Amino acid sequence: MKKLKILLPFLMLIAAACKKQPAAELTTATNEITNTGTGKFALAALVTTTENFETGTKTSYAAADVTLTTGVWNLNDALLGNTASDRKNGIQSARVRNSGKLTMKFNLTNGAATVSIAHAKYSTDANSTWQLWYSTNSGTSFTQTGTTITTSSTTLQITSFTVNIAGTIRFEIRKTDGTANRINFDDIAVTDFGSGGGGGGTGKKFLFDATKAETAGNADWVIDQDASPQQIPTPLQSTITASTAETYWTGAISSWGIALVKAGQAVETLPSTGTITYGNAANPQDLSNYNVFVVDEPNIRFTAAEKTAILSFVSSGGGLFMVSDHTISDRNNDGWDSPAIWNDLMTNNGTVTNPFGFSIDLTNITQLTGNVLTGNATNPILHGTQGNVTQLDFHNGATITINPAANATVQGLIWETGVTQNNSNLMSASSTYGTGRVYLVTDSSPMDDGTGAAGNNLFNGWTTFSHVPLFMNASLWLAKLQ
Description:
With 482 residues, the chain is mainly beta. The protein is 10% helix and 34% strand.
C-alpha cells in the first residue's frame, strides 16, 4: 500500500520566508491520504506535536532544564541561540556543541509514528554528526532509531525518522562527533503513532505478556526472546515488510507477532519486570493503552489486583487471548500450571464466578481434529478474513467445558474428534464479557513456530493445518476488526 502524505507543519520549514507557527498551534492535525489499492482513498487525521524552541531562555552551555512549549527539556552542552549566526526558523533554535544532548524530560503518551527534525551548521562551523534516540520507560534507558546523520549545510534541512512505536515515548538528540563544531536544531515534529502515522499505527495494539514465567523450563512463549523479552521487539517492527521471515525475531510465537505487524497491527511485550494494571496512569504499559492482551501459558498465578485489572480491561472493551496447556505442565515448579491458573482467575477473582462461561478441564490429550463448529459459516473466528479453519492439532493439551448458564455468549468452536458438539470435550471457545471479547485455546503447541532460546525443544505448529487462520482470525476478532 502506497501512501501520499501532506504534512502541513513540515511545509512551513521549507519556505524560508514563512513565519514559525505560534505556540498555540504546536499540536496540529495534518492529513494523510492513503491509497487502499482499490482506487479509493481514505483520509485519516494525524496529530503532530512540534517543538519550535520559541519559548524559554538558556544562554549557557552548562547542563540545565528549560521549560519549552511542549514541556521540560534538558539541554546539556547546549543553549537556545538567537544570534545572526544561528540557523533558525523564527527567533531562536537550539545550538549544540561537543557531545551535547537535547533530552525530553516528559513523555508523549500516544507513541510516535514519525519524527522530523530541522538541522543546520552554526555559523561557518565544519560538518558534525548526530543521532536520534528514544525511551519507552520514562528515560531509564534509550535506544537509537535510524542511522547517524551528518549535518553539512548552513541552511535548515529536514531529516525524518520512521519510529512506529506505540505507548509512552520520549526522545533525545545526541551530537556524536565530539568536536567543538556546533549544530542548530529546530522544529522537532512528532506524529502520533495511534493517529495513523504509518506502519502499524493504523491498526490496533497487542500486548504479549512475559510476566508469568512464559519462558520457564522448555517454554519460549514470547514474540521476541532476546536475552530477556523487552517491551519493543527488535529489529523495529517498522522495518518489517511483506517478505520478512519469521526468524527476524526469535521467540516461539514470533511468527504470530510478525504476522500481526504484516496485517497492520502493533505489538509489544510486557516484560518480566512489568505489572498488569488497568486504569493506572503511572504505568506506561497499563492495559488501557492496548486493545488485546495475549497471555500464552502463564506459569505464575495472577494476584488479586491483576485479576481485577484483567476483568476490568475485558469488561471495558478489551480483548483477552487465553492460551493454556495440559494438566501437570508446571514449568517453574511453583505448584501452579496454566489450567489451574486460568481456572483460578475465573473462579477466585472476588468479582464474578465464571465470567467468561468456560472452565479448563485437568486433562491431557494429543490429537488432530476436524470437528469444527457446524451450521455457522459466518463465524468470524472460523471463517474470517484470514481464511477458513478446518483442523486443529494438539500435542498435549487440555479440554474445555462451556457453561452457557454462566455466560450466554459462550460459543464452542472446535471439539475433540468424534464427539458430539455440546458443552464438553472442547479444544477452543470464545465469549464476550461486558463490552470486551475473550478467546481460549488449550494447547500452546499449535502457535509454536519452532524457534526460541538455544537448547529449547520446540515444535513448529504455526504453519501446519489451519492454525494461522484460526489464531489470526481470533486475534483480529478480539481487536474488533472483524
